[in-house]
Specification:
Elements lengths: L7 E7 L5 E8 L2 E8 L2 E9 L4 E2 L20 E8 L21 E2 L6 E3 L11 E3 L1 E9 L2 E4 L4 E4 L4 E5 L4 E3 L4 E9 L29 E7 L6 E8 L3 E3 L7 E8 L24 E8 L11 H10 L22 E9 L1 E5 L4 E5 L3 E5 L4 E3 L6 E11 L1
Parallel strand pairs: 1-24, 5-26, 13-16
Antiparallel strand pairs: 1-2, 3-4, 4-6, 6-15, 7-8, 8-9, 10-13, 10-15, 11-12, 11-14, 16-17, 18-19, 19-20, 20-26, 21-24, 21-26, 22-23, 22-25
């Protein structure tokens, strides 16, 4: 792969007066065009080595060195780009074909196991000591497990709970991954506990929900399986904004994260504790649908329903009723449509595939378009 598509990334923090401001805005610089094979590369958007994550400072931590997949209490956010398999592909002429083999620790990593099977257009069967939030940005990717295969399409979400898996690439594609250090108490990373997956409920009228896939390794034989596959089962609506939906996808309640079948039984909040994370996908209707009818009081009720009443941050001069601020480091990946990020001193337009990293800042999202927009938000507990 001669080059990677640039990933626009904005980093926002607080200035000396406590006002939210842009620290960095532009293509993420730490790109590796052929880091995985001749047809696959990645761009690091942020790296952290401990949790809770630091909310102060102005450094570009995408440039930090790390040994894949990262520290037990750390992790990284990256976008992986892959080239699709051509119609005339001949595996017998593929110089990168590796036969499947028994599991072994991948050299040069700190917690990655490999069973081979890779080629120019297929990754190896592998597992990492992480919980991964995978967000399909564009193109298609085939996720292959020991038992089960799914085709991921734009807007699909996968929660990889330390599972064996491989990727096949039928088309050119980009996919974002928030990879979080995990605990393998049995040494091999199979499921613990017996929390039952939540069954999807009927989608709210007129709202198309995102697909949520959860994978894990079964403790009886160590094989990777699909735990859940369907519309998000935990959806919160906002009566003041018709068409709005917040879909809670996963929670890590500790650091390193646990190997469990489900986490959505935990209390709803926007503010994780114990070095944890809360991952959600929000669907935002055009502001014109509710403008002039939703108030700061409606926003306070919404944040209370989200389990974080203190997040409401409306103030005199605020340009949007749903202004919020939490002590979290938020990774915001726009999956669909167009949004405007409003900060105290500026605003910035985001389109699908662009990323905002918010370091405990006062902000709001505005949809000034005529169509819905969708943003995935992974909130990590922060510290000042």
């Amino acid at each position: 792969m001669p080059s990677l598509k640039p990933i626009r990334r904005l980093v926002a923090g607080n200035d000396a007066a406590g006002r939210s401001t842009v620290l960095i805005d532009g293509p993420a610089p730490n790109a590796h065009p052929s880091s995985m094979s001749a047809g696959r590369g990645h761009t690091d958007l942020w790296v952290w080595n401990d949790s809770p994550m630091a909310l102060s400072g102005t450094s570009d931590d995408s440039l930090l060195k790390y040994r894949f997949p990262g520290e037990p209490r750390g992790g990284h956010l990256r976008v992986v780009q892959s080239v699709g398999r051509p119609a005339d592909y001949d595996p017998s002429k593929d110089p990168e074909v590796v036969p499947h083999h028994p599991p072994k620790l991948r050299p040069g990593t700190s917690g990655t196991w490999d069973r081979g099977g890779n080629s120019l257009y297929t990754s190896s069967m592998h597992k990492t000591q992480t919980v991964d939030y995978g967000m399909m940005l564009n193109g298609n990717r085939e996720l292959r497990l020991d038992e089960g295969t799914v085709l991921m399409q734009p807007g699909d979400i996968v929660i990889q709970v330390g599972a064996w898996h491989e990727w096949a690439y039928p088309t050119d594609a980009q996919m974002a991954f928030d990879m979080i250090g995990a605990d393998f108490p049995d040494g091999v990373g199979t499921a613990t506990g017996n929390d039952k997956p939540l069954a999807p409920e009927p989608a709210p009228a007129g709202i198309r929900l995102n697909r949520r896939i959860v994978t894990i390794d079964r403790p009886s034989d160590g094989k990777s399986v699909i735990v859940s596959d369907g519309p998000c089962p935990d959806v919160l609506l906002d009566p003041a904004r018709p068409g709005f939906a917040s879909q809670r996808m996963w929670v890590t309640e500790s650091c390193p994260a646990k190997m469990v079948y489900e986490t959505l039984h935990l209390p709803r909040t926007m503010e994780p504790q114990n070095g944890g994370t809360v991952f959600r996908v929000d669907i935002l209707p055009p502001d014109s649908v509710w403008a002039g009818r939703a108030s700061a009081s409606d926003a306070r009720m919404f944040f209370a329903a989200m389990g974080s009443p203190g997040a409401a941050a409306w103030h005199d001069g605020a340009r949007h009723p749903y202004v919020q601020k939490t002590s979290t480091f938020d990774y915001c990946v726009v999956l669909e449509g167009e949004l405007v990020l409003l900060l105290d001193d500026s605003e910035a337009v985001f389109r699908a595939g662009e990323v905002a990293l918010l370091k405990g800042v006062r902000h709001s999202w505005s949809n000034r378009s005529s169509a819905r927009a969708v943003v995935a938000i992974s909130s990590h507990q922060g510290r000042y």
